[in-house]
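OP here, attaching both records as promised.
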Amino acid sequence: LANELPQDRIDLSDTVIRSGDVITSEGLQHNYYVGSNQKRYVFTTQQTYFTWYPANARIKKIDRKRLEAIPLAGNVTYRPGMRVITFATDPKFYVVGHGGTLHEATASQLKGYYGNNWKERVDVLEEYYLPDYRIERPVRTSSSYAPLEEHTLSKTISHDKNLVLNLPSQK
C-alpha cells in the first residue's frame, strides 16, 4: 500500500511519532496507524486506507527498527458509514458499524442510505478479511442504522477501536 500512494506524500523526516499518525518504512508494502494505545494497526488494503484518509494525507516514513519497536495490535477496518462491503463468495451486502461490526442490509435499505448509485459504494473483499470484522444483527429498519451517526462516532481509528472514550457531546 505504501508504494501505491504518491511518494511526495511521505514525510522523510525523523519526527516524533504521535497517536493518529500514519507510518511506513522502506521496503514495506503497508502503512500503519499509530493508536492512542501506542500500538500500530495495519491498513491491509488501499480501500480501507481511503475510507479514513484522503489521497493527499501525510505518511511518516521512519526507520524500520523504530517501526518494529511499536507493537503490532491488529488490522484497521473500514470507517463506518463510508462504504458497503460484500465478500467474494457471499452475496450479502453489509454496512459497517462502529468497532468493525457488519450489519446485513437489503438493496432497498442501501438505496435509502446512499441513493440510487449505492452500488458504486460496494467493495468486494476477500474472505480472509472477515475475521477483522464482527457480524452482528441485520439492519431491521432504515432507522436502525444511520451512516452519518456511525461515521461521526468513529472520528478516528482509535475511537473506532474503543481506545478512546466516546462521550456524547454536551449542548
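Record two, same layout:
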Amino acid sequence: QFRCWEGFEDTNIVGHCEKCKTGQYRGRSVGGLSRVDVQGESCSLCVPGTYANQEALMACDECQKGQYQPGSCTKDDADGGPDGGCTACKYCPPGQYTDENKQSSCKTCDAGKFYSSSGGQTATVCGVCSGGTFSKSAASTTCDLCPAGYVTPTGGTAADHVTCGACSIGQ
C-alpha cells in the first residue's frame, strides 16, 4: 500500500501526496522521514500552544514564554484564518503574560502588579508596582499614584501594592 512521507497527506489519487498546509503537520515529533502510517493519512491541526509557519512539517513548534496560541483554527483556516490561524503564536495582551512554553492562553497579572507593553513584546512576568503606586485590580496595565497622605512601600510584594496606606507622622 502506498504511503505518503511525513509532512504530506494522501490526496486519494494513487501515488500522489500533497504538502501539509501551514498550521498543520503529519508525522512524529522526533525521528527522521518515514513512509509509515503516522497520525493517519491526513494532516492534523497544530494543538493549542503550538504553531506551524511552513508547509510540509512533521511536527508543530511550541510557542515560547510570553506568547500563546489558542489553537482555535479549523482545517479550512489553518493557513491564514482569523489572526493568522495556527501559523504563528500571539503576544499576550496588556495586563497578561505567560511564563511557560506551549501555552494556549495568557495568565492575568494579579492586583498589585502590571504589564503595559503590547504588540511585539514578550510578556513573561508582571512587574510589582513601585513605591508610592498601587494597582487594585487584576490585569492592570499601569500602577496609579497614591493620593496625597497615602503611600505604598518601596519594594515589597504585590499584596503591598493593592491599596495605599495612610502615611505615618513625618512621612
